[in-house]
Design brief:
Elements (H helix, E strand, L loop, with lengths): L8 H12 L4 E7 L5 E2 L2 E3 L3 H6 L3 E2 L17 E5 L5 E2 L6 E10 L3 E2 L4 H14 L2 E14 L28 H6 L1 H13 L4 E6 L5 E6 L2 E2 H21 L3 E3 L13 E9 L20 H12 L1 H8 L24 E2 L1 E2 L7 E2 L7 E3 L8 H17 L12 H7 L7 E2 L4 H10 L1 H6 L2 H19 L4 H7 L4
Parallel strand pairs: 1-7, 16-17
Antiparallel strand pairs: 1-2, 1-3, 4-5, 5-7, 6-7, 7-8, 9-11, 9-12, 9-13, 9-14, 10-11, 14-18, 15-19, 17-18
Amino acid sequence: MDTIRPIDPQHTALAEQLKADGVQYVLGGWIDITGRSKSKVVPISHLPNLLAGSERYTPRGMGDLGQMTPNEDECVAMPDVSTLRVCPWDRRVAWAAADLVFGGREPFAHCTRSILKRQLDIAAGDGFIFNLGVETELFVFKPESLEDPEGYLRPLALSGQLKPTQAYDADAAMDALPFLEPMARYMEETGFGLFSFDTEGGDGQYEFDFSYAPALQMADQLTFFRLMVKQVAKQVGLIATFMPKPYTSAWGSGHHFNMSLANIETGANVFRDEEDVRGRGWSKIAYSFVAGILRHARSIAAVATPTVNSYKRLVPRLSDGNVSWAPVYAAYGDNNRSCLLRLPHNRPAVENRGVDSAANTYITAALMLAAGLEGVRLALDPGDPIEDLTYDWARNGTSPSGGVRLPRTLLEAIDAFQEDPLVHEVFAGEFISAYAEMKQAEWDEYHSQVTDWERSKYLLAF
């Protein structure tokens, strides 16, 4: 089978070494809009061919990548050998992140990894490295939950049903070790730099915290992480989901971005400055980066909170009346967790709390970086940080400190996405139209359904 590059003898030696270690198959995972890794399964002896570009795909329509058109050229998956790792939950298989190359000639417009790489090149031209840490949350539950008429997801153990919340409970964490322990071990083995994991607010909800990295490396790690989570959960008889709000009374699952810029020459973080005029230790670059993201927050929502379900999380309060801990206003605060952006005291990074667990990390990071860099180039200033509990703004219907309300629905977010000139700089026109059409169809399908809530509310009322 033809390849688009010559076969590298070093890759032949790599295949032989992996085979001696027991690896039988390799995945060259390209990423769809939902962040899922897609790939053919290649025998280990064929690894040199795979790395040279032997595997072709017709990806449109198969991974939420636009409409399938059978008369166009194929894409070639080009794995990045630096990301190659053995899957520790099944050592017969190795995985690498791949770019999709249209016709073997140019980056595919819908290749989300290539979209991020382009923005990182722009940042490098401005003299910056974009570093990213992600706090990602998920639910793990018993399969019989799928039969629950109320949609409740039963956790691994009864200890995970504490009220008002299981968050940080040591007993619940220890009872969940059949899932958490292999995850922690495999993350350590594959270089995540895991430093903690815990039970989150929802029943059976967990978070893993690990080292930040350059943004492309972090996005690749998270793609591998999602594959790992689902496989490990199945091995212990459970199901994992990254759905942002899996049932009405559940806590939402976030995917918080912790972003920073570093000097490309020295590697030094440029977000700290002890001479900060506001006396908080942040640089003008950091404030301008914040201002750029706030400026484009409504359009960023289309990729950071990309589903109909996402907006069930972006509400001021949970169904029990407690605050949701998810942002509803595009505002920033000094350690204020009710804002979209937070400037934490313990790390030189800007935290975006709006991103949820359904987000594709590649395209979310690409648009967020572009917005932040625009703010830096224009020397924008976000004003003073917000100290108010912004959930009270939503309750009162006012934002006295000038915060802009984030989209309330996917439809609002997609409208903002299409109208934002920056979006048209970051994404190809065909990506924008395909993404908007896909999400518009998702909204229309949802909006056309008559729900149980509507029947209960209206059936006998009129």
